[in-house]
Write a structure and sequence with these properties.
Bound molecules: copper (II) ion
Helix content: 25-40%
Strand order of the largest sheet: 1-2
Largest sheet: 2 strands, antiparallel
Mean pLDDT: 95
Number of domains: 1
């Protein structure tokens, strides 16, 4: 259970390079989005996380 506001990236280790990632945003808090973007996520996973953050910002 996530009880604090903020954003958490969920990364499937074997498939992250194919984009199997997710973003959990609690309380519409994207204040740590830059830290998530700085994380070393290979391949399509990085692009997918960036797209999910942009989508969350737009909602
Ligand atoms: Cu996977």
């Amino acid at each position: 259970m996530i009880t604090e506001t903020g954003s958490t990236a969920v990364i499937c280790l074997p498939h992250q390079s194919m984009g199997m990632v997710a973003l959990i945003v609690v309380g519409n808090d994207l204040s740590n989005a830059e830290q998530i973007l700085d994380a070393r996520i290979p391949g399509q996973g990085k692009d997918k996380i960036a797209a999910l953050i942009e989508e969350a910002k737009a909602t």
